[in-house]
Amino acid sequence: MTMSLGPYASFIVTSYAAAGIVVALLIGWVIIDYRNQTARLRELERSGVTRRSGRSAVDTPRTTT
Amino acid sequence: MSLIDLANPTRFLALSARVLPWLAAATIILLGIGLYQSALAPDDYQQGATVKIMFIHVPNAWLSMFVWGVMSVASLGTLVWRHPLADVAAKAAAPIGASFTFLALLTGSLWGRPMWGTYWEWDARLTSVLILFLMYLGLMALWRAVEDPSRAARAAAVLTLVGALNLPIIKFSVDWWNTLHQPASVMRMGGSTLDKAFLIPLLVMAVAFTLLFVTLHLAAMRNEILRRRVRSLQMMQASRVAFSSEVGTGSRQESASKGAA
To answer: Do residues B91 and B149 touch, judged by C-beta distance below 8 A?
Structure first.
């Protein structure tokens, strides 16, 4: 089954492509930012700087619920 | 885990780590269903196939206002309850809200050209949404410009609550003024005027984009908490370096004075 988009196909395709690109950029930004922050935290911990609680700043505790 | 427990950033990180994979999976599935239904939706008798732009334009337009609403509630949390995650939530939401608003403007413009004969018109709805987009950018600039996060949080919270006045203006602009933009056809008194063939894919896409926002927001909040930890550890490191250099200078001066005596 083929989908016919009529004479304004370029407007429709551009809209969906733009949405796809922006959503992909958002996902990429979130993933790269997470990697950057965890890398910086690990680097700080390796250099001997730790939180006052003594817990790792990167790892998260297990929930008990 | 109660709601109060989530005030603890460490517990929030644990919860987000558990919830994010499920949210991401649900978002992908729902987006897939929504896109499939949008592709199969019939052409509109007036607009033809361009009605398909509605399935991404409307969810983005809804979310552009919804995200500002979320940021407004978070701002109340910052100013009234001083909730530790309130500013984190508002700051993390801003770039996502700005992206949705940009998409609403862009897809609306691409829909307007074939339907209205113009990409842009300075009418009430389009202009008020453009103002919303500029306010998102302004808020993001404010957070970056102020070095101290707590000062930035209060200033941003006040600006967000003032900016919330724009939301009813956007919503009712099509009723209060003459605009090219059509009046509300889904959320209106007397029910939706859309046929089910369009309404169902639209609602599925709206829920999918809302889930996408929740997923991205939780992930961005997690990143913001980690960023603040990096900052506090870096400050701790800098103060240690300053303290040790002071101690070093002090002991050198002491030994120098002993030697001179």
So the answer is: no
Cβ proximity of B157 and B68 under 8 Å: no
- Rounded to the nearest 5 degrees, what angle is found at the Cα of A23, between the Cα atoms of B212 and B16? 40
In sequence order, what E strands does chain B have?
A: none
Distance CA B87, CA B221 (A): 10
Q: In this predicted model, what pLDDT tens digit does every residue of B122-178 receive, in sequence order?
A: 988 999 999 999 999 999 999 999 888 888 999 999 999 999 999 999 988 888 887
Q: Are the beta carbons of A22 and B103 separated by less than 8 Å?
A: yes
Among residues B11, B240, B241, B237, the alpha carbon closest in space to that of A43 is found at B237
Cα distance between residue B88 and residue B106, in whole Å: 28
Handedness of CA B206, B209, B210, B211 (dihedral sign): positive
- What pLDDT, on a 0 to 100 scale, did the predictor assign at position B140? 95
pLDDT recorded at residue A6: 81
Q: Which contacts of B190-198 are long-range, i.e. CB under 8 A and separated by 24 or more positions?
A: B197/B41, B197/B42, B198/B41, B198/B44, B198/B51, B198/B54
Is B107 within 8 Å of A3 when comparing Cβ atoms?
no
pLDDT tens column, A46-55: 887 776 666 6
Taking an 8 Å cut-off on Cβ atoms, the answer to whether B114 and A19 are in contact is no
Radius of gyration of chain B (CA): 25
What percent helix, strand, coil does chain B show, rounded to 5? Answer: 80, 0, 20
Give the list of residues 6+ apart from residue B14 with CB closer than 8 angstroms, or none.
Answer: A60, A61, A62, A63
Residues of A in contact with B56 (CB under 8 A): 15-16, 19
Closest residue of B to A33, CA-based?
A: B223
pLDDT band per the 50, 70, 90 thresholds, residue B260: low
